[in-house]
Design goal:
With 250 residues, the chain is of the alpha/beta class. It contains 10 helices and 7 strands. Residues 18-19, 42, 44, 46 line the site of magnesium ion.
Length: 250
């Protein structure tokens, strides 16, 4: 049985564009004909909301799948308005991280290649069981960051966790891409932060990134991916290019 290709979107800082990147890559992949599942592991629920998904009252979420409270993914799955795109939303009434083994998500996704070609996992900024589950299930990690002075620390912690996971529980974890978000090439600080990251983690891992575009925030509010909300916007163009860059890297 085939397994889907799993990508975790992670950064140990909040507000760096994780949910925006998860939602928009998921929608692009589905549009390209890849059957895609977005797994939202952040109890803020932004991954699901960004695709217009509001789970029903009392419906199980991704956390209950991990704890085994529900036996299969199907109890929590929601189809989106876009063909080929499903969401496993987070339960927003469960702000506390469940205490679960790090291998749960990998086990749930095993053999699911019949249903999905790709899985993208939106993660919380906190270190803990949920982030561990995402990395243990992933083949690749995308790290969105805002190139501020303190940005490198969140990335450094994540990169450490990436290598530790790849060399222990998940040898299938092989790809790491760092994506500057709201980067402005005219801002000297942004250039310096990105040059430092390239020196530390390898220039080939730093992708072009996503420019600031208010349309991305508006699309999120509207519960739609940017390719549907504003297909000709800067944000739509940048996410399309990111998707192409990632394909070349993998
Ligand atoms: N490229 C961008 N341009 C403008 N606003 C953005 C961009 N990317 C994300 N945002 C906005 O920044 C905020 C944080 O993004 P979000 O994806 O929710 O981050 P995280 O999931 O890491 O907390 C959101 O309000 C989002 O709409
Ligand atoms: Mg988020």
């Amino acid at each position: 049985m085939a397994d889907p290709f799993v990508v975790a979107v992670a950064n140990r800082k909040g507000g760096t564009g994780k949910s925006t990147t998860s939602v928009n890559l998921a929608a692009l992949w589905a549009q390209e004909g890849r059957r895609t599942l977005l797994v939202d592991l952040d109890s803020q629920g932004h991954g699901g909301l960004g695709l217009g998904v509001r789970p029903g009252r009392g419906q199980a979420g991704s956390q209950q799948c991990l704890t085994g409270e529900v036996a299969t993914l199907d109890a929590a799955l929601v189809a989106t308005a876009q063909p080929g795109l499903d969401v496993l939303p987070a339960d927003t009434r469960m702000p506390r991280e469940p205490a679960v083994d790090a291998g749960r998500l990998a086990a749930l996704l095993q053999g699911q290649g019949e249903r999905w070609d790709r899985v993208i996992v939106d993660t919380p900024p906190s270190a803990g069981a949920l982030l561990d589950n995402a990395l243990a299930a992933a083949h690749g990690v995308v790290v969105p960051l805002q190139p501020h002075a303190l940005a490198a620390e969140g990335v450094r912690q994540l990169v450490q966790l990436f290598f530790r996971t790849a060399s222990t529980v998940n040898p299938g974890l092989q790809h790491l891409a760092i994506v500057p978000v709201m980067r402005d090439p005219r801002v000297r600080l942004h250039r310096r932060v990105i040059d430092d990251l390239a020196r530390q983690f390898g220039g080939f891992r730093i992708l072009r990134g996503i420019r600031a575009d208010i349309r991305l925030a508006e699309a999120f509010e509207a519960g739609a991916a940017i390719i549907h909300y504003a297909p000709r916007s800067r944000g739509a163009m940048d996410y399309q290019l990111l998707s192409e860059e990632l394909e070349a890297l993998w």
